[in-house]
TrEMBL record:
Residues 75-265 form the ABC transmembrane type-1 domain. The chain crosses the membrane at residues 21-39, 79-104, 111-131, 143-163, 191-212, 243-264. Belongs to the binding-protein-dependent transport system permease family. CDD domains: TM_PBP2. The lineage of its organism: Bacteria, Bacillati, Actinomycetota, Rubrobacteria, Rubrobacterales. Pfam families: BPD_transp_1 (PF00528). One of its GO terms (biological process) is transmembrane transport. This is ABC transporter permease subunit. It is a multi-pass membrane protein. Keywords: Cell membrane, Membrane, Transmembrane, Transmembrane helix, Transport. Its main location: membrane. GO terms for cellular component: plasma membrane.
Length: 279
């Protein structure tokens, strides 16, 4: 009997093929709308309404020229609001996480869990009380109203994530620093933060994404002067109707910043989110 006839045939790996099909289907579902959004942004308003839609057409930058006319003001508003709120979140959340991880107590886990459960609170439940408070303080449509909201919204995320990173630090390093007379502030700045910079980067990235995409609070607490991009995108619908091509161009410009930030910090993001997953 020949070796070819005695060789056992490998079974067909149906599970492997099914997994690949499911992954490609997920890619199409997730990135298909983004691809079509970008394609539509290079069409004219008339071509955007063609049925059936056309993939072969003469691209134009006409929609981007029109979108840029009203893009820069809300873009700068979003950069200022998101940048300042994220910095404040880190300034408040990182020391809080360090205190909870350094001073071990049986209730620390419960405290951290309480922090993160505040994210489960429906936004509409606090919308009216916050609106009344900000109206009385004359903060509506100011730079500080969304900064305050985003700090309250994202600080629990910073505390929860940084606590997970910091509690896995080797205790021997921190105890040796104490023996050498290092103060807690020096320990945080010179030891803990450098060792958890990947976690800080991934946490900051999540804060930027959540704040950049926030719509309900933004549309409720701002009007014209400090309108962020998330509200400006929705405002592209005019009394004359919905111009899909220009809306696609404006939306494409609006998502550029999160995409660039995510691409630049992807290594830190993956490293930070997977830190401590394997002991």
């Amino acid at each position: 009997m020949s070796g070819a006839s005695t060789r056992r045939k490998s079974p067909i790996r149906w599970g492997h093929y099914a997994q690949n099909v499911a992954l490609w289907a997920a890619v199409v579902v997730i990135f298909g709308p983004i691809f079509w959004l970008i394609v539509t942004s290079f069409k004219t308003d008339a071509a955007a309404y063609d049925l059936p839609p056309k993939l072969l057409f003469t691209p134009t930058l006409e929609q981007y020229a029109g979108a840029l006319e009203s893009f820069w003001t809300p873009f700068l508003n979003s950069v200022i609001i998101v940048g300042v709120s994220t910095a404040i979140c880190l300034l408040l959340g990182v020391p809080a996480a360090f205190a909870l991880s350094f001073y071990a107590h049986k209730r620390n886990e419960g405290i951290v869990f309480w922090f993160i459960t505040t994210k489960a609170l429906p936004q509409v439940a606090v919308l009216v009380p916050l609106f009344v408070i900000f109206r009385e303080l004359q903060l509506l449509d100011t730079v500080w109203v969304l900064i305050i909201v985003f700090v309250g919204m994202n600080t629990p995320i910073v505390v929860w994530m940084m606590y997970q990173f910091m509690k896995d630090l080797p205790r021997g390093i921190l105890e040796a620093a104490q023996v050498d007379g290092v103060s807690l502030s020096q320990m945080l700045m010179q030891i803990v933060i450098p060792l958890t910079r990947a976690g800080i980067a991934s946490t900051a990235m999540l804060c930027v994404i959540f704040a950049w995409n926030e719509f309900l609070f933004s549309v409720s607490f701002t009007a014209i002067e400090w309108q962020p991009l998330s509200v400006a995108v929705a405002a592209q619908q005019t009394s004359r109707g919905q111009f899909w091509a220009q809306l696609s161009a404006f939306t494409t410009l609006a998502i550029i910043v999160p995409v660039i930030v995510g691409w630049l910090t992807q290594k830190q993001l993956v490293r930070g989110l997977t830190s401590g997953a394997v002991k």
